[in-house]
Amino acid sequence: xxxxxxxxxxxxxxxxxxxxxxxxxxxxxxxxxxxxxxxxxxxxxxxxxxxxxxxxxxxxxxxxxxxxxxxxxxxxxxxxxxxxxxxxxxxxxxxxxxxxxxxxxxxxxxxxxxx
Length: 115
What we know:
Number of strands: 8
InterPro entries: Leu-rich_rpt (IPR001611), Leu-rich_rpt_4 (IPR025875), LRR_dom_sf (IPR032675), RLP_Defense (IPR053038)
Keywords: Glycoprotein, Leucine-rich repeat, Membrane, Repeat, Signal
Order of helices and strands: EEEHEEEEE
Subcellular location: Membrane
CATH class: Alpha Beta
CATH superfamily: Ribonuclease Inhibitor
Number of domains: 1
CATH architecture: Alpha-Beta Horseshoe
Strand content: 15-25%
Shape: globular
Largest sheet: 5 strands, parallel
GO cellular component, one term: membrane
Radius of gyration: 13 Å
Number of helices: 1
Distance between the termini: 35 Å
Structural class: mainly beta
């Protein structure tokens, strides 16, 4: 199971937290957990997975701050329609990053953010 590359669990009525152990799936390139009722904080391990390039977490009930660090390979992130708070980390200014963050309760960094 740890050789899994794509995991799509979109719109499955999942109502739990994202386990910290998600980072053990070293070959995962795409994860879609959008349109569920996932709550809690986003585990740092999720943003530090070296193979993950696409992450969809939109339309859940996630809260707290975004992880301060992110893998340089993670370039497409949808976090829209959650309850995330705090200021955005500096990685939001990474070139070629596609970040969807509608309805954030956060402050944008001092650099302009073009989405």
